[in-house]
Amino acid sequence: MMQESELEQQIKNCLTQIDKVFPIQTIINQQVTTNFIRDYHTYSSWGYKYLHSREGSLHLAMNYEGYFTPQGFYEQTRLIHELLSNYSTYTQILELGSGNGFNTIDLAQKNPQRHFTGLDLTPSSLQTARKKSSHLSNVNFKEGDFQSLPFAENSFDVVFEIEALSHANNPEKALSEAYRVLRPNGLLIAIDGFRYPHFDQLPASIQQASQLVEITMAVQQGVKLHEWIQMAKNIGFTVDSTIDYSSFVVPNLIRFRNMAREYFYPTWRGKLLNWLLPAHLSKNAVAGLLIGYTVQAQAQGYFQVILQKK
Ligand SMILES: C[S@@+](CC[C@H](N)C(=O)[O-])C[C@H]1O[C@@H](n2cnc3c(N)ncnc32)[C@H](O)[C@@H]1O
Questions:
Q1: DSSP character for 167?
Q2: Per residue in 175-221, pLDDT tens?
Q3: Ligand 1 centroid vs 99 CA: distance in angstroms?
Q4: Ligand 1 atom nearest to 100, measured from its CA
Q5: Mapping DSSP to helix (H, G, I), strand (E, B) and coil, where does residue 251 land?
Q6: Ligand 1: centre distance to CA 75 (Å)
Q7: 187 vs 209: CA distance, rounded Å
Q8: Which atom of ligand 1 is nearest to the CA of 217?
Q9: What atom of ligand 1 comes closest to residue 161's alpha carbon?
């Protein structure tokens, strides 16, 4: 394993390179508002499709074999599907931040006896999701904010989210809304990125790199795993399990880094990308360059947390 000082040095080199292209202070001053998040997902969709996942996944692939394959995009839904098989009476399922419908559609196809609702903020993603699911009778997609859910209380048996709640500018409100719409004994399954509890003790360069990753992915800053879990407990959830899946997203993060390198250390392909990419996606290269290192430094991690409404 690489020494921490070597890792820090690599992060510092990246920060120097990034600062030449996008002044770091300007990125740090950026507020991640709801409009910023919606614009990010609207204008990045083309790049996500051609550079990340043709299948429409907006989340990271989880690859156990140590190298990236697109099959890894289906690992999160495979885990959720496996969990659902223990709850045959749980039929009403809601996905928060359903994006292009990748997860909801995959699960709806595998669970024709259950009904799935996907909720998202971004109209263009909802349009894609509706088009892709037009052949399914057990799916519907709704526009809305997961911090103010347009559903009555006790409407769902399971609420799940994949890399969506990390965008919440009010995580407490998002959790309490999920709690409100769940039936008693209902589950909230979160697969998402969080800061590690010891984040504040890490070197300043690693903390700054993590902050840049969050802003350039339109994610809110500062939520640590244990703080988020405590918020959930205060609302009334009990914690069924917490699993750290960080090592399984590393192959995808290395793929990001290789693409981002072309942007910051341009080859002819990088120059072409610079010219073609929308502004949000170019800034995404900042996250692409850094996130493999911030995860390796255990500043940020990728977790599954299962909560239950008692
Ligand atoms: C990283 S994408 C993940 C999409 C999808 N879960 C997937 O795995 O492909 C995050 C999604 O959350 C949505 N989102 C962000 N903030 C939201 C909010 N406050 N309410 C509803 N959706 C939101 C975005 O529009 C985007 O589609």
A1: G
A2: 999 999 999 999 999 999 999 999 999 999 999 999 999 999 999 87
A3: 5
A4: 9
A5: helix
A6: 18
A7: 34
A8: 1
A9: 6
For 43-108, the DSSP string reads: HTHHHIIIII-TT---S----TTSS--GGGGGHHHHHHHHHHTT-TT--EEEEES-TTSHHHHHHH
CA distances from residue 234 to 174, 176, 193, 230, 237 in whole angstroms, order as listed: 13, 10, 21, 6, 7
**Is 164 a pocket residue for ligand 1 (Cβ < 6 Å)?**
yes
Core vs surface per residue 12-33: b (16+ CB within 10 A) or e:
eebbeebeeebebeebeeeebe
The helix (H) or strand (E) run that includes residue 287 is helix 279-296
Does residue 59 line the site of ligand 1, with CB under 6 A? Answer: yes
Instruction: State the residue for tokens 């995959």.
Output: 106
121 close to ligand 1 (CB < 6 Angstrom): yes
Q: How far is the CA of 95 from the centre of ligand 1 (A)?
A: 10
C-alpha distances in Å from residue 129, one per residue of 21, 60, 139, 147, 150: 35, 18, 10, 21, 19
pTM here is 0.94
Fold classified for 4-309 = Rossmann fold (3.40.50)
Give the 3-state DSSP-derived string for 97-132, with helices as H, strands as E and coil as C. CCCCCHHHHHHHHHCCCCEEEEEECCHHHHHHHHHH
Q: Which residue has the tokens 């959830």?
A: 237
Cα separations in angstroms, 276 against 72, 190, 191, 238, 271: 27, 34, 32, 47, 9
Distance, CA of 202 to CA of 225 (rounded, Å): 16
Q: Indicate the domain borders of the chain.
A: 4-309
Q: pLDDT at position 280, please? A: 63
User: Residue 96 Cα, ligand 1 centroid: separation in angstroms?
Assistant: 7
